[in-house]
């Protein structure tokens, strides 16, 4: 299956990364449009990928602030310097995945993506 690698970062560039998505976002990769309170507040739209699809070039999950709420199954990660929301991750059903905020990726037109409603309120 075709894939594409995107460059991403927080606003202040303290955290930079590459993420490989298959299929590419522009070619139909479904992007989660979650209705939970944190995703709605931050405008998250998440591309769900395997943990090994993300390569941190500067910073990383261990340097980001982590926030958990509700069932506390997922962590939401943001830059402690500029506050940019970058990711959400954790283990659901024994599978470890990470959701990358597509708003942190370079050159992605959010209006052209395939959104998949996700009922995070129910978690």
Automatic annotation (TrEMBL):
Q: What is this protein called?
A: DUF636 domain protein
The reply to whether Ubl conjugation figures as a keyword in the UniProt entry is no
Q: Which UniProt keywords apply?
A: Metal-binding, Zinc
- Origin species: Microthyrium microscopicum
| Membership in a protein family | Belongs to the Gfa family.
Q: Does the keyword Zinc apply?
A: yes
Q: Which GO MF term does the entry hold, naming one?
A: metal ion binding
Q: Which SUPFAM superfamilies match?
A: Mss4-like
């Amino acid at each position: 299956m075709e894939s594409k690698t995107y460059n991403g970062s927080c606003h202040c560039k303290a955290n930079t990364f590459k993420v490989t998505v298959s299929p590419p976002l522009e070619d139909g990769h479904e992007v989660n449009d979650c209705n939970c309170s944190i995703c709605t507040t931050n405008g998250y739209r998440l591309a769900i990928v395997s943990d090994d699809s993300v390569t941190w070039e500067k910073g990383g999950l261990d340097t980001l602030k982590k926030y958990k709420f509700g069932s506390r199954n997922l962590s939401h990660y943001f830059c402690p310097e500029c506050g940019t929301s970058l990711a959400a991750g954790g283990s659901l059903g024994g599978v470890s995945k990470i959701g990358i905020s597509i708003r942190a990726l370079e050159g992605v037109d959010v209006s052209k993506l395939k959104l998949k409603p996700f009922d995070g309120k129910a978690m």
